[in-house]
Amino acid sequence: MKTSFLRIICCIAASVIVAQESVFAVSPAFAEHYNAGQNFLTQNQYSSAIVEFRKAMKINYLDNSARIGIVNAYLARAVYYVNTEKDYEKASNDFRSALFYLKMYPDNEQDIQNSIGMIQSANGNLNQCLKISGFDTTADSRLKKAEELRAMANFSAASYEFSKAAENEKYAFEGYSQIGDLMKLLGNEKRAADYYKLALDKKPNDGVTRMKYARTLDKIGQYDTAVAQYNDALANAKGDMEVLYALERIYLKKLAQTPNDADLNANIGAIKQAQGDFDSALDYYGKAERLNPGNTLTRLNAGTLYQQKKDYRKAIEAYNSVLTVEPSNAKAMYYKATALDEMGDKQAALNMYNSALTLDPNNKEIKNAVADIIKETMSPTEYISYLSKNGSLNELYDYSYKLHKEGKINEAIQGYRAYILEDQSKADAYINLGICYASKDDYGSAVTTLNVAKDKFPTNNLVLKTLKEIQGDYNTTRISAAASSYEAKDYKKAIQQYLEVTPPTETTMLGVAASYQALEDYDNAITYYKKAEAINPKNAEIPYYIGYLYSEQQKWNEAETYLKKAVTMNPESEAKNLLAYVSQNGTLGVLNSGIELYEKKDYTTALTKFNEVLKKESKNAYAYYYRALIYDEQKKTKEAIADYLNVLKNTKELPIANYMAAVDYDALENYKEAFKYYKQFVSEYKTEDEYLQYAKSRMKEIEPYAS
Asked: Which terminus of the chain has a smaller tally of CB atoms within 10 A, N or C?
């Protein structure tokens, strides 16, 4: 008597939690994935269930039923890994993920309390697995493990380990900020905001995290808190247009509710001014002034706006209106002085600067303005001429260098040339002059200047180095521009700029590949990574990048090929961890595919799948078992027996293989071997069913022939 695959599950943590009915409206797409997840879970197809529940949660991350579904799937798969495969590492990751969704993901404390028993059980099972596998539970190890899991895109398990690392003050900021990022990737903006706040409590001056926190608060509608965070970020990054637009959007919403709020109108005016929309800014300042005529700060802002527009008359009128009310307002005096200065009335500006300095004697801005105004009465060209005739050579060089630093390249060139006319003994003057020419893309003049310097200073390494750099600067400039476009997230422009560099280099091909990867165009990214590899086949990171992208596409065979190459080239490569994951998924996928084909009675195709598994894993008992079943169907009894014996050789979890081998020996009238495997089956098989009864009965019948 034949049987199909026999499943036996012995749970170390048999309890599961039952999903409560969702309070949210269920979309058809959500229902499709949720129901698919439940069906897969009931069929013990845990990985597929996790995928479907995760898709459902992307549609509605607040749905408690999907969250509970994914918890159940992770717990069930963890139990399978422990009891069936004895793979405590994989089981640990699934227990980590279950704990993440049980106690980190929910934003409702009652949901956590409702699951307290399961949290304790999962935590106990995780600790047991970690103990068996010898996992180092120090904070350093926790952080390293979290980073590995994040690199493998196992975000839920990674978040759990980041939380454990964050229990150590040394890693608290990094742990919490990483969890915030991963929560956003998983679609849970509310909890992302919570973790960004925890990170900022540890490191308040981190501008990047504060912007992430502000954006997240903005997205979930916590506008007042978002404004505070944006303002804090703006104070450390003046003129950041993203912050300005975010503040504008929030203030406009508030203004729609309270249109006669003077402060709101003034704030929006300041934002419009910072954005360069002067006309709109004046409209808002005007309304704020009408609503609160006594606010001198609004008048000061209006004055600076007119000054930006170079309407100095109106600017000075605004500053004078403040000084009429507050004669000792040093800021109004300073702004009026700058307006006079810009108008060219240097003496009046100097008088006003001095008046402001009397009120605010420690103001460095005013002091610098007073010191500079004398110099600024002359144009740079006039001042260079003046220094050439009346000043020292050191002053001339220092002034030229100052112009250079300020980006006044044409004037700096005039200064350096004037200096070299008087003194040809300073190599730095030639070097800086060449750099100035190059910054204007005048590479001919730059190279000529530096060749003169090379003749004068043949042993000066800086001259030789600068000449070499500038000769190759054109391509370098374009590569730098492409990199800037990439950093600005303008990936399409970056691709175009990298491809314009000729001949192609490893750097440019990697740049194109990284840009396509950022655009999630993995096919093109892989193409250009391969081109980079062709240029430099010794770079072990490139096959790792290719393998990673293939794994993202679930092209397991291709991923395995490149990750093996990366590990061969560099045994310490991060590819080693990803390779294990890819190999396991590839083999498991092929095995499951073979089982599905077997169940559909497509034996020929199924056989190729099991052969493929065994080629990679020569001890895979399940592949031998199913291949034996196919051989039986094909009447290849001897081949079937050989595979049943391989099953018994590689696992004790399929005692049914004894029975199957005995039946085949029996069919071949090899009663001695048949009796042997019937006997073995009876000794190991503990379920009183028709198989056991038949084996016992048949043993009695053939025992006389078994000696």
From this structure: C
